[in-house]
Design a protein that fits this description.
With 487 residues, the chain is an all-alpha fold. The protein has helices spanning 7-59, 62-73, 77-110, 116-128, 134-139, 143-164, 171-193, 207-219, 227-237, 240-260, 262-265, 268-277, 280-307, 309-316, 324-349, 355-378, 384-408, 419-428, 431-441, 445-466, 470-478. The two termini are 30 Å apart. The chain folds into 3 domains: 1-213, no CATH class; 221-423, no CATH class; 430-487, no CATH class. Helix 1 crosses helix 4, helix 2 (62-73) packs across helix 12 (268-277) and helix 4 (116-128) packs parallel to helix 7 (171-193).
């Protein structure tokens, strides 16, 4: 790469992709959920949770590790080729071993059950995971290709879904289409990247990477002992229906959060590059700007989701999924906590190569969550509400400890609770009277949601303009909506 790519352009491409990824579920979600119902959706989610545990070990932390390490050497084609080849060999070995273990586990534990064919189809995804090299594109900040490729493939998926899935009897076709989506996405990326990055097996380094990968594996998969654990325990101790309610709330949260995390994902390569080539002060300045930008969108999104939980659930899943309304409210709080933890893990511990701290802390928080869950089981108190509430509590304990270590041990000058950051949360509380007034005057779900988003968005922007918020004026200047003071 001869030129530094603009973070703003990368955010735009990543945001464009995530907006598309939001629109797609909004289009197909209500259609699929009304056809399948809570039980079948819960079955998919339960199977996906089991598959995810194996996928974590098959992926072996290569995505996060490769993203960081390639970002540091991306200007040296020879080093990139050698590192890519080494990681690919490790990926092949990990995926083959884990896939074999997965199919043995599935045959011994689920053969003859309704879950069995779903798990077999997900097993195919494990095989395809060998070709998952999106991290190489992100390390080189090639978000334009990722965006275009993903949008084209998802359009194909939408067409096939509406054509082939008509009733609940098409359940396995619906699951198979997800496997087809993985196949097209992975293969296209792999073929494209091979045009510019060649294999170089003459200088493979396996052992030197495995230790770091094991640390990243634990660090980057907190869901093992958090949200994924919730779904496994709900499916094991209650029923698929409860997993369906939980998963619906999680999915909606992920749809919204995916757009917000664009800011985080696209800046990891740049932060890695800055800290490797510039000063600690430059790193802290960029980190502070990223946190501020992230909170500017995170807080209003979370507050808005909390206030519109009923409308969102009923519009997305229908009346059958109404028990998920309260779950989504708790998920809106979880989204804030998890967002802060994501910054700590990926933009501080990981970028500064202090993964060991993060691994220990995440593990301790996860064990706390596991202990609380078993207490809930013993006292017959486990349900989707208590599951996400206790996970939120465990995450909150985790970020408090992480923040103390970041400030005192890592000496990173990050004032998370500064007025510059917290003002976005304070302003977002203005949404409460606005939404309740709209709900009092209007009964139509679509109008409530639409007017609430527009009304809250306008008020939020106006208040920030009145406060002469630096972030808003910077964005307006960048897009030539207002003129720079320097011009």
């Amino acid at each position: 790469m001869t030129k530094e790519k603009s973070i703003l352009k990368n955010v735009i491409y990543k945001t464009l992709l995530n907006v598309f990824n939001i629109i797609v579920p909004i289009i197909i979600g209500p259609y699929a959920y009304r056809i399948m119902g809570p039980n079948l959706i819960g079955r998919i989610s339960y199977a996906e949770s089991i598959y995810t545990y194996f996928l974590i070990f098959a992926s072996f932390g290569i995505y996060n590790y490769g993203l960081r390490e390639i970002s540091r050497i991306r200007n040296d084609k020879s080093q990139v080729s050698s590192l890519f080849s080494s990681l690919f060999v490790i990926s092949v070995a990990a995926n083959l071993i884990v896939t074999l273990c997965y199919f043995i586990f599935v045959f011994f534990n689920f053969k003859g059950t309704p879950l069995f064919p779903v798990l077999i189809l997900y097993g195919i995804n494990l095989v395809l995971n060998v070709f998952y090299i999106e991290w190489l594109f992100e390390a080189n900040e090639s978000y334009n290709f990722i965006a275009i490729k993903t949008m084209v493939i998802r359009i194909i998926y939408i067409i096939l879904l509406f054509t082939l899935v008509r009733t609940y009897e098409d359940f396995l076709i619906y699951v198979s289409l997800n496997t087809l989506l993985f196949l097209l996405n992975y293969i296209v990326s792999f073929i494209y990247i091979k045009r510019s990055v060649k294999f170089n097996f003459s200088n493979l380094q396996i052992k030197s990477h495995v230790k770091s990968l094991l640390i990243v594996l634990v660090m980057s998969n907190a869901n093992i002992l958090y949200v994924q654990l919730d779904k496994i325990m709900l499916g094991s101790y209650l029923s698929e229906k409860y997993v369906g309610y939980y998963f619906t709330s999680q999915l909606i949260t992920n749809i919204i959060n995916a757009l917000l995390l664009s800011i985080i994902y696209v800046t990891i390569p740049r932060l890695s590059h800055v800290i490797a080539n510039e000063s600690q002060k430059a790193y802290e300045k960029l980190l502070g700007q990223i946190c501020k930008g992230y909170f500017a969108f995170l807080f209003p999104a979370a507050i808005g989701m909390f206030l519109l939980s009923k409308e969102i659930i009923l519009l997305y899943g229908g009346v059958e999924f109404s028990p998920a309304i309260g779950i989504l409210k708790i998920f809106s709080i979880f989204m804030i906590v998890a967002g802060i933890e994501f910054i700590f893990t990926n933009q501080i511990f990981y970028v500064k190569k202090k993964e060991k701290f993060s691994v220990v802390l995440i593990g301790c928080g996860g064990l706390l969550n596991l202990l609380i869950k078993y207490i809930l089981v013993v006292f017959n108190m486990l349900n989707p509400y208590t599951a996400i509430a206790t996970t939120t509590f465990s995450y909150s304990c985790l970020i408090v400890v992480e923040y103390i270590i970041i400030r005192r041990k890592l000496k990173v000058d990050l004032n998370l609770l500064s007025i510059k950051n917290m003002k976005y949360l304070i302003i977002s509380f203005l949404f409460i009277p606005i939404v309740y007034c709209i709900k009092y005057l209007i009964s139509n779900l679509i109008l409530i949601a639409l007017l609430s988003v527009i009304g809250c968005g306008v008020v939020y922007l106006v208040v920030l303009l009145l406060l002469r918020d630096e972030l808003v004026f910077s964005l307006l200047t960048r897009f030539n909506i207002i003129k720079s003071n320097n011009s």
